[in-house]
Amino acid sequence: AQYPNGGWPQVFGDPGTYHAHITFNDEAMVSVMKVLQEVGNKSNEFAYLDDTRAERARKSVEKGVECILNCQIKVNGKLTAWAQQYDE
To answer: Is there a domain that residue 55 lies in?
Structure first.
């Protein structure tokens, strides 16, 4: 469900609505990244996963961080804030 730009939809499988947008409010994207970070670290209930899946999760988190940084709004050349939602 991760978009090529590193973001995730608010709700997967609901194209054409605002649910398809990258969503920062309500911790929608951050919650996905937290789970993937646990998968990538093979923490707790994810300890059984193979290294390939863990690496894929780590790369997804990295892309997510890049997306967050790339979405930051610039005003007069200065990084300021983020919108609550972005087009996919």
So the answer is: yes
pLDDT for 7-53, tens place per residue? Answer: 988 877 777 777 778 888 888 889 999 999 999 999 999 999 999 99
User: What value, to the nearest 5°, has the Cα angle with vertex 55 and ends 54 and 57?
Assistant: 65
Residue of higher predicted confidence among 68 and 26: 68
Alpha-carbon dihedral sign for residues 50, 56, 59, 64: negative
Q: Is residue 78 part of a domain?
A: yes
When divided into structural domains, the chain yields a total of 1
